[in-house]
Amino acid sequence: MARLKCLTFDKAGQDALSPELKAKMKADRDRARLIDSIGLIVTDVIAGTKVNYYPWFDKQTNTCADPVESYILTTEVFQVGREWTCKIKGVSGLVSINHLQIR
């Protein structure tokens, strides 16, 4: 029986993967990086959770608006580009999860 190798260190094994599987693995890595980089984990999006919402954030000056109290409406999470978003009370569209802070 052939010895199993860790795919991380097996270049031939990585090259043999289907494009669909490679794309899924990349999406999973990107999601994990996103979860590591934000304070609110996607699985923490629970309907009724009270949050502070920051309506805007300026990356150049590193300033944001005063927080607004709200709560999460649904447990649905949507990925828009590289941003994970959800629905909160008082906002007509989707809000980026990294604009929220659990209270």
Can you offer a commentary on this structure?
It is a single chain. With 103 residues, the protein is α+β, with helices and mostly antiparallel strands. It is 24% helix and 23% strand. It has two helices and eight strands; from the N terminus they run H-H-E-E-E-E-E-E-E-E. The protein has helices spanning 11-16, 19-37; strands at residues 50-53, 57-58, 63-64, 68-71, 78-80, 83-86, 95-96, 100-102. Strands 4-1-8 form a three-stranded antiparallel beta sheet, with no helix packed on it. The longest helix has 19 residues, at 19-37. It is elongated. It starts with 10 loop residues before the first helix and ends with a strand. The mean pLDDT is 78.
Summarize it:
The chain is an alpha+beta fold.
- Specify the overall morphology: elongated
Distance between the termini: 54 Å
Q: What strand order characterises the main sheet?
A: 4-1-8
Strand content: 15-25%
Helix content: 10-25%
User: Could you report the average pLDDT, rounded to the nearest whole number?
Assistant: 78
Weakly predicted, low-confidence segments:
none
| Element-by-element helix/strand order | HHEEEEEEEE
The main β sheet shows up as: 3 strands, antiparallel
SSE class: alpha+beta
- Count of separate DSSP helical elements: 2
Estimated radius of gyration: 18 Å
Count of distinct strands? 8
